[in-house]
Amino acid sequence: MSNETADMRPRTCAQAIEGMALSLDPEQAGDMETVIQFHVSGEGGGEWYLTIQDGQCRCERGVAAKPALTITTPADVWLAIARKELSGAMALMTGKYKAQGKMGLLLKMDKIFSRPLTEADVAARGWLEE
Q1: Domains of the chain from N-terminus onward
Q2: CA separation (Å) from 80 to 30, 112, 114?
């Protein structure tokens, strides 16, 4: 993997979740309207949720009122999944993280969040400077 590609990968779980909002593929999301909640434990943990609506995705800190899917994960596990160092499906099956709610949505996440981030996306968030 080139250094340039490595620099584009998230360095924190917060970046990984925020990056999901940036990587939404509107064609794959279609007319989807949903909320995905993340409860992240460990170093760099916190509460985030993604709202998908009108072909766009917004990431916010906090707890959503009625998420369709809730993911409970250690920060290092979700970061490894986001960096493609760990298979999300394998991590779920081996109990590294838990999911509740619409499991069909969980299974679609790889396709829904498939738009590659650009250098401009990453630079605009200030991730390269952190």
Answers
A1: 3-110 (3.30.1050.10)
A2: 27, 19, 16
With vertex at residue 98, the alpha carbon angle to CA 74 and CA 72, rounded to the nearest 5 degrees, is 45
52 vs 62: CA distance, rounded Å: 16
Reduced to 3 states, what is the DSSP secondary structure of residue 83?
Answer: coil
CA gap 127, 10 in Å, rounded? 8
Phi then psi for residue 74, to 5 deg, are -70, 145
Asked if residue 81 lies in contact with residue 51, where contact means CB atoms within 8 angstroms, the answer is: no
Identify the helix (H) or strand (E) that includes residue 121: helix 119-125
State pLDDT tens for residues 75-128: 999 999 998 899 999 999 999 999 999 999 999 998 999 887 777 766 666 655
pLDDT in tens, 76-91: 999 999 988 999 999 9
